User: Which sequence fits this backbone?
């Protein structure tokens, strides 16, 4: 019987196969996480008026990375009682966004500083009941610069928001 040119045939150890399967599962998980980004965002609507409740409608906020839109947050009309607040939790599921080199450089620079910066901009309209018959309508414009600490995702003290009403 002819002998194999490379030596006797050997089988791969079961431990090696097990380690290879674990590595494959981890690789698939990392790829999946890279494709889908899931973020939780809490928006708080506050009514500091102790006499009147307020109705918010047309709430539309854009979450962006250095001007590149990542997500659009929209809400149905809602009421906030006198001197109360209401929180909304948005679960944002985003597909992977291919970044141009300018955005890649921006993200890499931010990660080296252990921060991630996002912008949150948008508008909503409020309607305040004044007495029994009349109401006042005000449009609010919001512009926030949000800075997060990368390791734990907490909001940095450098974050700030501006709002204008018209």
Assistant:
């Amino acid at each position: 019987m002819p002998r194999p040119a490379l030596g006797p045939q050997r089988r791969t150890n079961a431990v090696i196969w097990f380690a290879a399967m674990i590595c494959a599962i981890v690789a698939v998980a990392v790829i999946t996480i890279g494709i889908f980004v899931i973020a939780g965002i809490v928006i708080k609507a506050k009514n500091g008026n102790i006499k009147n409740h307020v109705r918010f409608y047309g709430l539309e906020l854009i979450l962006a990375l250095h001007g590149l839109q990542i997500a659009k947050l929209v809400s149905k009309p809602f009421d906030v009682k006198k001197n109360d607040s209401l929180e909304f939790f948005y679960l944002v599921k985003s597909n992977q966004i291919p970044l141009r080199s300018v955005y890649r450089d921006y993200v890499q620079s931010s990660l080296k500083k252990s921060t991630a910066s996002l912008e949150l901009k948008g508008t909503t309209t409020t309607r305040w009941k004044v007495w029994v018959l009349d109401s006042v309508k005000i449009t609010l414009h919001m512009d926030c610069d949000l800075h997060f600490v990368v390791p734990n995702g907490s909001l940095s003290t450098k974050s700030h928001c501006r709002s204008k009403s018209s």
Notes: Confidence is low (pLDDT under 50) at residues 31-36.
